[in-house]
Specification:
Length: 533
């Protein structure tokens, strides 16, 4: 499978392995990290950003691709939608059927609310399914939520909203217990104790995993619980606009049947946006590890309704996306590969960074190695560096890879690469939306009544960078809390007349600012979809 140049480089990796195993590269100082990030991380490339021209975040910068959507009009601007013809009438409407949406729906249902989920794809077609490495929680005797907080706060460049991060770490042990009770098959030892490992930026082993398909196992369990509770899930149906009432409160959403192009009205006393990430916008032309529907829909819907964004200019590029073979370009190589002992090595066989630096630092280091230093390995689609996976078997014993990361092993074996014997080529891939809609500690947006947000569509939980394992955690913690809060709020809501007047106001503001792109948003599916909408 490898080219002659790659094979020559592999010989150098093998030749330096014994020496590299004696001493790990040192961790960078805070000053070194700051210099590296400013020089090489995509978040600092001015060409990748635009200025927001209207709305709550006017004057701030945003990724160019997201800015284009924010400066586009609603699909409904020239449509005649009869808001008096209500197709669905519920207490809680959950937009999105990934881990956050499912968790929210389960808890809202548990609280006695009439709840419905709407998903533009199927339940579980979400970034939750793509998560591999694990979920953090400080539930071991040598750890504490305080230590978890310090790790995450520092890893996020001290920018996380304290009330959100505090809730994340304090409720983490209960989240693990809840998932375990629902039936998630966590890795456990012979005595039934959960096996935990390190992740990048963690000072304790607090990563709980289900081999290397943690997200899929969690999503399987949540999906089954939704189905068992008979919570309605309207699939292949997109929320294309939030509905307000004449008092300015969110009162539901207009839905689009993706198969028939028919519009429907869903009236709701509270709405939870749980639409996930933005990887399929391919910021700065990066490949992505995200699922097909990750097009920032919730950010567009919330912003047009008047909800502010937070840290919308920060994106996480996972340092280890597949660089070769081309058929799986951009697919995620879990950080767990490095926590098990694999080392990042350049074309000359040199270990150029500590294997468990935070994700932003790791990504910037790899980009530097492949650009200015010229020590990347040439691939058909660019360049990459080696992840020396045979080290895992040497350090952990034969069979470790098949036991601990079987999905990774199978993925590469499909293309004739045995990561037990050969290193693999990686390069950063667009992975996570650090920024999103701003919420308070209770999950409600700051300015729009009856509107909550959970999961990757939230900004502020992780600051300006996220540690491994805290995304699976936040979808559970904030998904559950949003469901409880939405159900409680719905008991006291009496809606006034429904209206879509805010989309006309938005169109007027775009026109006055000279910012109208002429397109419509949300995008719903990536531009290379077979049938563009």
């Amino acid at each position: 499978m490898f080219t002659p140049d790659m094979l020559e480089s592999i010989k150098k990796v093998e030749a330096t392995r014994a020496e590299r195993m004696k001493t790990e590269p040192r961790r960078m100082t805070a000053e070194e990290k700051e210099t590296l990030l400013k020089a090489y991380h995509p978040d600092f490339r001015e060409a990748g950003f635009a200025e927001i021209k209207i709305g709550p975040n006017k004057g701030e910068k945003v990724p160019t691709e997201l800015g284009h959507l924010l400066h586009s009009n609603s699909r409904l601007l020239n449509e005649k939608i009869d808001l008096n013809k209500v197709d669905y009438d519920v207490d809680v409407l959950v937009i999105g059927a990934g881990g956050a949406g499912a968790s929210a729906a389960i808890e809202a249902h548990e609280a006695g609310a009439n709840v419905m989920i709407v998903s533009k794809l199927r339940i579980g077609d979400a970034n939750t399914m793509m998560a591999e490495g694990g979920i953090q929680a400080a539930d071991k005797p040598n750890d504490s939520p305080v230590q978890h907080y310090l790790d995450a706060f520092g890893g996020g460049h001290f920018a996380a909203r304290p009330e959100l991060l505090r809730r994340l770490v304090m409720e983490a042990p209960d989240a693990i217990a809840w998932l375990n009770k629902l039936g998630v098959m966590f890795d456990k030892d012979e005595e039934g104790n959960m096996v935990t490992t390190h992740g990048g930026g963690t000072s304790r082993k607090r990563m709980h995993a289900c081999k290397d398909y943690s997200g899929a196992e969690i999503m399987r369990t949540l999906r089954d619980e939704v189905i068992n509770r008979q919570i309605p899930v309207v699939e292949f149906t997109s929320a294309v606009e939030l509905i307000k009432d004449t008092n300015g409160r969110v009162a539901g959403a207009v839905l689009l049947n993706m198969e028939t192009d028919d519009y429907m009205v869903a009236k709701a006393k509270t709405v939870i946006i749980a639409t996930g990430g933005a990887g399929r916008l391919h910021y700065q032309n990066f490949p992505t590890s995200n699922h097909y529907g990750a097009t920032a829909d919730g950010l567009v819907l919330g912003y047009r309704a008047g909800a502010p964004l937070l840290y919308q200019d920060t994106i996480q590029y996972h340092p280890t996306g597949v660089a070769y073979p081309s058929q799986i370009f951009g697919a995620l190589v879990t950080e767990k590969v490095r926590s098990l002992g694999a080392m990042l090595v350049n074309a000359e066989g040199e270990a150029f960074m500590h294997p468990l630096e935070t994700r932003d630092v790791s990504a910037a280091s790899i980009i530097r190695e492949c650009s200015d230093r010229g020590k990347g390995v040439t691939t058909p689609l660019g360049s990459g560096v080696w992840l020396d996976t045979p080290m895992i078997e040497i350090l952990g014993g034969e069979g470790t890879i098949e036991k601990r990361i079987p999905a990774m092993l199978r993925m590469y074996l499909n293309y004739g690469i045995d990561m037990r014997k050969q290193p693999i080529l990686i390069y950063p891939t667009l992975h996570y939306q650090n920024g999103g809609l701003e919420i308070g500690g209770d999950g409600f947006t700051k300015t729009i009544d009856n509107l909550l947000v959970a999961g990757e569509a939230v900004g502020g939980i992780h600051g300006r960078n996220r540690l491994m394992g805290n995304s699976l955690l936040d979808i559970i913690v904030f998904g559950r809390n949003a469901g409880k809060a939405a159900a409680a709020k719905a008991k006291d809501v009496e809606l006034a007349e429904l209206t879509l007047s805010h989309i006309e106001d938005y169109a007027k503001a775009l026109k006055e600012a000279g910012a109208d792109t002429g397109d419509v948003s949300p995008l719903l599916l990536p531009k290379y979809a077979r049938h563009e909408r």
